Amino acid sequence: ISAVLLTHSHPDHTGLVTALHRAGAEIHVHQEDAATLLDGPRSSMRHAKPERSMAPYLLRRPAALGTPLRMALLGGFTAPRFAHARPFGGDTAFDSLPGRP
Questions:
Q1: How far apart are CA 67 and CA 93, in angstroms?
Q2: Pairing mode, strands 26-30 and 3-5
Q3: Of the candidates 36, 86, 95, 101, which lies 20 to 30 Å from 64 by C-alpha distance?
């Protein structure tokens, strides 16, 4: 992997950026999301818009509670501090990316 283009800075997308960078990959992120990578753990949760509560769903399906608990214990809602991303602006064209229309 030579480069990674993050579509957004939620922890499920940024969790491997440090390991990928150490392996030689360039990490690209939109300039509006770059601050969340610099802030480190729990950053994207602070910057994110409030999500709809899971409480009603979990009250109807208590067995589903195990999944978010396991995710929290494993750090699934946090992301490492990362200062090596290459920010890009909204008018950047990625003409050579795979999957381009």
A1: 38
A2: parallel
A3: 36
Count: domains in the chain: 1
Tens of pLDDT along 28-59?
888 878 877 777 656 655 655 555 667 787 78
Close Cβ partners of 80 (under 8 Å, ≥ 6 residues apart): 14, 15, 17, 18, 40, 41
Sign of the Cα torsion 60, 46, 37, 19 reads negative
Closest CA to 88 of 2, 40, 26: 26
Q: Kindly report the pTM of this predicted structure.
A: 0.55
| Model confidence band, residue 83 (pLDDT cutoffs 50, 70, 90) | confident
Q: The domain containing residue 47 runs over which residues? A: 3-88
